[in-house]
Design a protein that fits this description.
The protein is α/β, with parallel strands linked by helices. It has one domain: Thiamin diphosphate (ThDP)-binding fold, Pyr/PP domains (Rossmann fold, 3-Layer(aba) Sandwich), CATH 3.40.50.970. The protein is built from 11 helices and 7 strands. The strands form 2 sheets. The protein has a 5-stranded parallel β-sheet with strand order 1-2-3-7-6, sandwiched between helices. The chain has a two-stranded antiparallel ribbon with strand order 4-5. Helix 8 links the parallel strand 6 and strand 7. The chain is globular. The N and C termini lie far apart (62 Å). The mean pLDDT is 94.
């Protein structure tokens, strides 16, 4: 028989384990992106990348509510989603560098990483391009009765894509187990979303009768709690839901976007980084609640930095795909 004190201690331990795991995952994403930016600035990475720094709490909180075999679809800013769902940094760096050991054998690059083994159906360079894929995965889960849920990540810039409204209509009609997660980082590339998006964002899914919620995208616990509730609802037959996560990207639209003063201020960036940083907010909370100390958190960062350095070295040493493979894995 479990006493009230025993149950309380178990709850605290569970919260501590989960919170520290969330912290670790967010730091891994942040430091992964630091390495991506370094590879780009040293001209070691082909093409561009779109960094997820500042938005880590969304990927970590949402994916924390999923089973390994649940599905996600990602975006051009998708490294955080991939890592939070269980992707290997080594294989991701190899893909970014166009190497044979990458998830897509070096042929996809930053914006097309897929890892079916962890339920990641792929990032997508087309804005809103994965909305139909996620909804189709939810349709298959419903037909097969396997209890899986699909999550579709997309930015607020994709709210202008008609595909979203077509698939939300079908998802609600057929009560599909899909969660649409809108990451509103305020800017559609170089334009504030208020200049492109009319009305209330959550009124859009509501027009289809889809349950919609808004959450602070910088609070990983708030994101997790909302996602857990909506994922459980979808899994039990409650149908689709829409989760609006308000967040901010610390860097430019892509790694080459370094002169941002013409569309946002340095003060705005600094305010978000110092007052609304998801990693700092969780770290301060862990210390204030006695669930961790500064030494533990700093030690974790040192450990993860070493992990990312080793992952980059693995990718650098990985061979390029053989020339004869240029037509393999290409479908028409």
């Amino acid at each position: 028989m479990t006493t009230a004190a025993g149950a309380s201690a178990k709850t605290i331990a569970t919260l501590q384990d989960r919170s520290i795991q969330f912290y670790r995952q967010m730091v891994r994403i942040r430091l992964f992106e630091e390495q991506v930016n370094d590879l780009y600035t040293r001209a070691l990475m082909p093409g561009l990348a779109h960094l997820y720094s500042g938005e880590e709490a969304i990927a970590v909180g949402v994916c924390g509510a999923l089973h390994q075999d649940d599905y996600i679809t990602s975006t051009h800013r998708g490294h955080g989603h991939c890592l939070a769902k269980g992707a290997s940094p080594k294989l991701m760096f190899a893909e970014l560098l166009g190497k044979a050991d990458g998830y897509c054998h070096g042929k996809g690059g930053s914006m097309h990483i897929a890892d079916p083994a962890t339920g990641n159906l792929g990032a997508n360079a087309i804005v809103g391009g994965s909305m139909g894929i996620a909804t189709g995965a939810a349709f298959s889960a419903r037909r097969l009765g396997n209890g899986r849920v699909a999550v579709c990540f997309f930015g607020e810039g994709a709210l202008g894509q008609g595909l979203l409204y077509e698939v939300m209509n079908l998802a609600q009609l057929w009560k599909l187990p899909v969660l649409y997660v809108c990451e509103n980082n305020l800017y559609n590339e170089y334009t504030h979303f208020s200049e492109t998006t009319a009305g209330d964002i959550c009124a859009r899914p509501a027009a289809f009768g889809i349950h919609a919620e808004t959450v602070d995208g910088q609070d990983v616990h708030a994101v997790y709690a909302a996602a857990q509730r909506l994922v459980d609802r979808a899994r039990s037959g409650g149908g689709p839901a829409f989760l609006l996560c308000n967040t901010y990207r610390y860097t430019g639209h892509h790694v080459g976007d370094i002169n941002r003063e013409y569309y946002r201020t340095r003060q705005e960036e600094q305010t978000w980084k110092t007052e609304r940083d998801p990693i700092r907010l969780l770290g301060d909370r862990l210390i204030a609640e006695g669930l961790a100390d500064r030494g533990l958190l700093e030690g974790m960062e040192v450990e993860i930095r070493a992990e990312m350095k080793a992952a980059v070295e693995f990718a650098m040493e990985s061979p390029y795909p053989a020339a004869g493979e240029v037509e393999k894995h290409v479908y028409a």
